[in-house]
Design brief:
Layout: E1 6-10, H1 14-20, E2 32-36, H2 53-56, E3 66-72, E4 77-83, E5 89-99, E6 112-115, E7 121-130, E8 134-145, E9 151-163, E10 167-179
Parallel strand pairs: 1-10, 5-6
Antiparallel strand pairs: 2-3, 3-4, 4-5, 6-7, 7-8, 8-9, 9-10
Protein backbone atom coordinates (compact mmCIF):
# COMPACT_ATOMS: atom_id res chain seq x y z
CA UNK A 1 0.00 0.00 0.00
CA UNK A 2 1.39 3.40 -0.98
CA UNK A 3 0.94 6.25 1.49
CA UNK A 4 1.29 9.81 0.32
CA UNK A 5 2.71 12.37 2.68
CA UNK A 6 3.00 16.09 2.35
CA UNK A 7 5.63 18.34 3.88
CA UNK A 8 6.20 21.97 2.96
CA UNK A 9 8.53 24.33 4.81
CA UNK A 10 9.06 27.93 3.71
CA UNK A 11 11.45 30.26 5.58
CA UNK A 12 12.95 32.72 3.06
CA UNK A 13 14.62 34.96 5.67
CA UNK A 14 16.14 32.13 7.73
CA UNK A 15 19.72 33.35 7.21
CA UNK A 16 18.76 36.89 8.25
CA UNK A 17 16.92 35.58 11.32
CA UNK A 18 19.93 33.43 12.25
CA UNK A 19 22.15 36.53 12.02
CA UNK A 20 19.84 38.82 14.01
CA UNK A 21 18.29 36.67 16.73
CA UNK A 22 21.47 35.55 18.56
CA UNK A 23 22.64 39.20 18.63
CA UNK A 24 19.32 40.71 19.74
CA UNK A 25 18.94 43.23 22.55
CA UNK A 26 16.79 42.53 25.59
CA UNK A 27 13.58 44.52 25.05
CA UNK A 28 13.55 45.35 28.78
CA UNK A 29 16.63 47.59 28.45
CA UNK A 30 14.39 50.56 27.63
CA UNK A 31 10.88 51.60 28.64
CA UNK A 32 10.09 53.54 25.44
CA UNK A 33 10.78 52.65 21.81
CA UNK A 34 9.69 54.27 18.55
CA UNK A 35 9.71 52.54 15.18
CA UNK A 36 8.56 53.42 11.69
CA UNK A 37 5.38 51.66 10.56
CA UNK A 38 6.86 50.51 7.23
CA UNK A 39 9.62 47.89 7.09
CA UNK A 40 13.14 48.29 5.78
CA UNK A 41 12.25 45.58 3.26
CA UNK A 42 8.94 43.68 2.98
CA UNK A 43 9.16 40.29 4.67
CA UNK A 44 7.03 38.57 2.06
CA UNK A 45 4.37 37.24 4.40
CA UNK A 46 0.67 37.57 3.79
CA UNK A 47 -0.21 37.49 7.49
CA UNK A 48 -2.29 40.27 9.02
CA UNK A 49 0.01 43.26 9.40
CA UNK A 50 2.93 41.61 7.62
CA UNK A 51 4.21 44.92 6.23
CA UNK A 52 2.77 47.44 8.69
CA UNK A 53 3.92 47.49 12.31
CA UNK A 54 0.82 49.41 13.46
CA UNK A 55 -1.39 46.70 11.97
CA UNK A 56 0.77 43.97 13.49
CA UNK A 57 0.22 45.55 16.91
CA UNK A 58 -3.53 46.03 16.28
CA UNK A 59 -3.15 49.83 16.40
CA UNK A 60 -3.65 50.65 12.73
CA UNK A 61 -4.56 54.25 11.89
CA UNK A 62 -4.67 56.28 8.69
CA UNK A 63 -1.61 58.50 8.22
CA UNK A 64 0.39 56.55 10.80
CA UNK A 65 4.12 57.15 10.46
CA UNK A 66 5.47 55.70 13.72
CA UNK A 67 4.58 53.33 16.50
CA UNK A 68 5.59 54.06 20.08
CA UNK A 69 5.93 51.21 22.56
CA UNK A 70 5.79 52.32 26.19
CA UNK A 71 6.52 49.55 28.67
CA UNK A 72 5.46 49.65 32.32
CA UNK A 73 7.27 46.55 33.53
CA UNK A 74 6.18 46.73 37.22
CA UNK A 75 2.50 46.96 36.17
CA UNK A 76 3.02 44.31 33.44
CA UNK A 77 1.57 46.60 30.74
CA UNK A 78 2.56 47.70 27.25
CA UNK A 79 0.96 50.79 25.75
CA UNK A 80 1.16 51.01 21.95
CA UNK A 81 0.58 54.41 20.34
CA UNK A 82 0.28 55.08 16.65
CA UNK A 83 1.71 58.50 15.78
CA UNK A 84 1.57 60.68 12.67
CA UNK A 85 4.54 62.59 11.22
CA UNK A 86 3.89 65.48 13.68
CA UNK A 87 4.02 63.08 16.69
CA UNK A 88 0.27 63.40 17.31
CA UNK A 89 -1.34 60.30 18.79
CA UNK A 90 -3.77 58.65 16.37
CA UNK A 91 -4.63 55.50 18.30
CA UNK A 92 -3.70 53.76 21.57
CA UNK A 93 -3.87 50.08 22.49
CA UNK A 94 -2.86 48.50 25.81
CA UNK A 95 -1.49 44.98 26.20
CA UNK A 96 -0.96 42.84 29.29
CA UNK A 97 2.55 41.39 29.62
CA UNK A 98 2.50 37.77 30.78
CA UNK A 99 5.30 35.48 31.88
CA UNK A 100 6.01 32.98 29.12
CA UNK A 101 4.81 30.12 31.32
CA UNK A 102 1.50 31.83 32.21
CA UNK A 103 -1.84 30.73 30.80
CA UNK A 104 -3.26 33.10 28.24
CA UNK A 105 -6.20 35.18 29.47
CA UNK A 106 -9.70 34.01 28.71
CA UNK A 107 -11.86 36.14 26.48
CA UNK A 108 -11.40 36.84 22.81
CA UNK A 109 -10.91 40.58 23.38
CA UNK A 110 -7.86 40.12 25.61
CA UNK A 111 -4.72 41.78 24.29
CA UNK A 112 -1.52 40.29 25.62
CA UNK A 113 2.07 39.37 24.89
CA UNK A 114 4.20 36.79 26.58
CA UNK A 115 7.47 38.38 27.76
CA UNK A 116 10.25 35.80 27.82
CA UNK A 117 13.20 35.66 30.20
CA UNK A 118 15.38 36.59 27.21
CA UNK A 119 13.47 39.86 26.64
CA UNK A 120 11.41 38.79 23.62
CA UNK A 121 7.67 39.37 23.08
CA UNK A 122 5.58 36.41 21.85
CA UNK A 123 2.02 35.63 20.86
CA UNK A 124 0.85 32.07 20.40
CA UNK A 125 -2.34 30.74 18.85
CA UNK A 126 -3.16 27.07 18.36
CA UNK A 127 -6.32 25.36 17.15
CA UNK A 128 -6.75 21.60 16.86
CA UNK A 129 -9.92 20.30 15.27
CA UNK A 130 -10.86 16.64 14.99
CA UNK A 131 -13.28 15.72 12.21
CA UNK A 132 -12.63 13.50 9.17
CA UNK A 133 -9.02 14.36 9.84
CA UNK A 134 -6.99 15.21 12.87
CA UNK A 135 -5.14 18.46 12.48
CA UNK A 136 -3.70 21.47 14.21
CA UNK A 137 -2.98 24.97 12.97
CA UNK A 138 -0.81 27.49 14.76
CA UNK A 139 0.23 31.12 14.37
CA UNK A 140 3.06 32.64 16.39
CA UNK A 141 4.60 36.11 16.41
CA UNK A 142 7.97 36.90 17.92
CA UNK A 143 9.04 40.52 18.39
CA UNK A 144 12.58 41.43 19.37
CA UNK A 145 15.03 44.32 19.16
CA UNK A 146 17.86 43.78 16.69
CA UNK A 147 21.51 44.57 17.39
CA UNK A 148 20.93 47.90 15.56
CA UNK A 149 17.92 48.82 17.70
CA UNK A 150 15.30 48.05 15.05
CA UNK A 151 12.14 46.00 15.67
CA UNK A 152 12.13 42.52 14.17
CA UNK A 153 8.85 40.64 13.81
CA UNK A 154 8.86 36.98 12.86
CA UNK A 155 5.51 35.54 11.80
CA UNK A 156 5.35 31.75 11.93
CA UNK A 157 2.41 29.62 10.97
CA UNK A 158 1.87 25.99 10.26
CA UNK A 159 -0.40 23.00 10.05
CA UNK A 160 0.06 19.35 10.88
CA UNK A 161 -2.19 16.37 11.03
CA UNK A 162 -3.52 13.20 9.52
CA UNK A 163 -5.94 13.49 6.59
CA UNK A 164 -8.64 10.83 6.86
CA UNK A 165 -6.60 9.47 9.79
CA UNK A 166 -4.20 7.91 7.26
CA UNK A 167 -2.22 10.53 5.34
CA UNK A 168 0.18 12.65 7.40
CA UNK A 169 0.73 16.27 6.38
CA UNK A 170 2.81 19.17 7.63
CA UNK A 171 3.45 22.68 6.43
CA UNK A 172 5.09 25.73 7.97
CA UNK A 173 6.07 29.25 7.00
CA UNK A 174 8.22 31.87 8.68
CA UNK A 175 8.63 35.45 7.55
CA UNK A 176 10.91 38.03 9.17
CA UNK A 177 10.18 41.74 8.82
CA UNK A 178 12.40 44.46 10.28
CA UNK A 179 11.05 47.93 11.09
CA UNK A 180 13.61 50.73 11.50
CA UNK A 181 13.82 52.72 14.70
CA UNK A 182 12.43 56.21 14.31
CA UNK A 183 15.15 58.84 14.16
CA UNK A 184 15.01 62.48 15.13
CA UNK A 185 12.26 62.06 17.72
Amino acid sequence: MLLLTGCVVNAPQKAQFNAEYPNRQDIRHHAVYRFMTKPLKPGGGKDYGANDLAETLRARADNAAMVELRFNYPARRLQVKTLDAQNSTLREVTYVLLDESAAKPSGSDSRYFFLTKEGVLLTKYKNCTPDMSVGCRWHDRMLFITRNGDMAVQFASGTAGMAFLVIPFYGSEKHLTIYPKATGV
